[in-house]
Recover the amino acids of this structure.
């Protein structure tokens, strides 16, 4: 029988540790492992293992390249495999800025297949700090949360990915007003994810499918929010079929990014018609990534190689002329001017008389291949 493993992520260390403590209390004999990365820029990592409130093992290590990937591959995964069967539950408390997806995918390997099963990805959130942190433009290095030397990610970017990948969001800290505001924000950021403040979800059951977890957030298959308004917070969905004029859309980027707290989705350009382009922006920082081909650009024989989720999404978006190409962007923020936002985006669409024009594409130098941080 494989041993259940639950990941506990979150930028807010106090909230995260409180969730780990609760898991240890509720599952006597469970072990929690945490890699403290506060000295990672000096090439040092401290592994702390707890049983209840007691530290049972403390070790310092120096991974070859001083990064999270090395730590997971060289220490965390071997430690979990070694302790499989020795505890009813293994709790992995991730460092502040570690994104749970990279760890979940590392555990989904042949070495751990019969010994470990991932049963939960919990992101702990401090209800007092989340509304502020999700709009902070600080980078991780300046805020002391970096997970490697040269880590250039932003605090709000990491927080968004932590909560969007989770199977449950756990609220700690703050007062009733903080909890109400945080729940309202999460209704827009992660509408399909359970939010709990007391009893934790079951974490000793069946194994999660890591691929399905990833498909919930990957742009070609993402479960994006719908048009919603909660108090002053608004989510606006923009869906169109016509291609975007790359020059006009590029010129609108700053206004689109600064006018909302969080936006994401997929789009296409006539200069790159075969590529699914991902839009991802939070707290004023935007990235555009190449996520591979649209199904319409592939031979039909290759469609069977795609996941059921990818084929289902393509069928829902399918148009007899352009296939599964679609503009599907979602914007969230306080008091968004819906009509102005939709008007700006519509003005970026390619006009019929521009279809044959030779267009310059300023996105070419901006687009990167999709990577998981």
């Amino acid at each position: 029988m494989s041993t259940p493993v639950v990941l506990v992520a979150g930028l807010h260390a106090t909230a995260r540790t409180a969730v780990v403590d609760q898991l240890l209390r509720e599952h006597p004999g469970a072990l929690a492992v945490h890699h403290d990365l506060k000295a990672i820029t000096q090439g040092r990592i401290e592994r702390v293992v707890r049983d209840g409130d007691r530290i049972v093992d403390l070790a310092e290590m120096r991974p070859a390249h001083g990064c999270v990937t090395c730590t997971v591959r060289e220490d965390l995964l071997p430690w979990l495999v070694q302790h499989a069967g020795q505890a009813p539950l293994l709790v992995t408390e991730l460092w502040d800025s570690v994104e749970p997806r990279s760890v979940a995918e590392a555990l989904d390997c042949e070495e751990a297949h019969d010994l470990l099963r991932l049963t939960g990805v919990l992101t702990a959130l401090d209800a007092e700090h989340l509304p502020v942190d999700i709009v902070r433009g600080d980078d991780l290095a300046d805020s002391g949360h970096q997970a490697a030397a040269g880590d250039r990610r932003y605090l709000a970017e990491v927080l968004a990915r932590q909560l969007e990948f989770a199977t449950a969001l756990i609220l700690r800290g703050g007062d009733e007003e903080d909890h109400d505001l945080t729940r309202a924000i999460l209704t827009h950021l992660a509408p399909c994810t359970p939010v709990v403040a007391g009893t934790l979800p079951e974490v000793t059951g069946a194994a999660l499918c890591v691929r399905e977890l990833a498909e919930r957030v990957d742009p070609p298959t993402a479960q994006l929010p719908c048009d919603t308004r909660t108090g002053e917070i608004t989510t606006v969905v923009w869906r169109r079929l016509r291609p975007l004029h790359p020059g006009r859309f590029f010129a609108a980027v700053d206004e689109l990014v600064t006018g909302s707290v969080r936006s994401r989705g997929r789009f296409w350009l006539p200069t790159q018609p075969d590529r699914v382009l991902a839009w991802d922006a939070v707290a004023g920082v935007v990235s555009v990534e190449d996520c591979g081909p649209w199904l319409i650009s592939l031979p039909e024989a290759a469609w069977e190689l795609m996941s059921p989720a990818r084929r289902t999404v393509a069928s829902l978006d399918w148009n007899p002329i352009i296939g599964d190409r679609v503009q599907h962007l979602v914007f969230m923020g306080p008091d968004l001017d819906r009509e102005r936002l939709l008007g700006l985006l519509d003005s970026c669409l390619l006009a019929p008389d521009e279809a044959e024009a030779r267009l310059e594409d300023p996105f070419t130098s901006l687009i990167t291949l999709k990577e998981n941080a």
Observations:
- The chain has two domains: 3-214, 228-369.
